[in-house]
Design brief:
This protein has 9 helices and no strands. With 209 residues, it is mainly alpha-helical. It has a domain of 143 residues: Tetracycline Repressor, domain 2 (Orthogonal Bundle). The radius of gyration is 19 Å and the shape is elongated. The termini are far apart.
Length: 209
């Protein structure tokens, strides 16, 4: 990381700002993921992060931008976990499918705040054009990962059909997890979710029973 700028307390300006962003992201995950979008003000975020309101606006232009930054961080972690799991699963297509589904579901449900942000709070803020456009773009990017897998297994499929199938499979996961996170604690186990989504993906991708 670049460390130019005035040094204060042994840390450069760039280091202090990076630390501040991390604290705001942590506060955002905690508050958006527990109290919800509508119940979380910038003042509460700043108090939880231990930063001044002025400092908040030096990092994020709005509460919406912080929500989207938290959302992106969760999805980036999920994508990394899925890619590692699929790579480690070997060549068997059904095993790879389950590994990917299990990794994604696990990443979001291991910490229910992640599922809350991705599957509820970004939707709750969806009346804002910036949030809606960002969420739609993220869903399409994630569906492109699925489309690559579809292409490797169904290379003869029409590209438009492949795109629709990938979006449908992406939507299926999100809707199931939206239902899961809407259930008051204690929430049901996720194994049935992984099992049924794996069956859906296996059938849709034409990999057998």
């Amino acid at each position: 990381m670049q460390t130019t700028g005035r040094v204060y307390g042994g840390r450069s300006e760039a280091e202090r700002r990076a630390d501040r962003r991390e604290r705001l992201l942590a506060a955002g995950l905690n508050l958006f993921g527990t109290e919800g979008w509508s119940g979380t003000s910038i003042e509460r975020l700043c108090t939880a992060a231990g930063v001044a309101t002025r400092s908040f606006y030096e990092e994020y232009a709005s509460r919406e931008q912080l929500l989207l930054a938290v959302y992106d961080e969760v999805l980036a972690g999920a994508a990394q976990r899925v890619l590692h799991a699929v790579e480690a699963a070997g060549a068997d297509e059904t095993t790879r499918t389950r590994a990917g589904v299990e990794a994604y579901v696990g990443h979001l449900t291991d910490d229910p705040r992640r599922a809350q942000v991705v599957n509820r709070e970004v939707r709750a803020a969806g009346g804002l054009p910036e949030v809606t456009a960002h969420r739609n773009a993220s869903l399409h990017r994630f569906s492109e990962l699925i489309a690559l897998e579809v292409r490797s297994r169904r290379s003869d499929q029409d590209p438009d059909e492949r795109r629709v199938l990938a979006l449908a499979l992406t939507g299926a996961v999100n809707e199931v997890l939206s239902d899961w996170v809407s259930t008051p604690p204690p929430r049901p186990p996720t194994e049935p979710i992984v099992r049924e989504l794996t069956r859906l993906y296996v059938a849709a991708l034409g990999t057998g029973a």
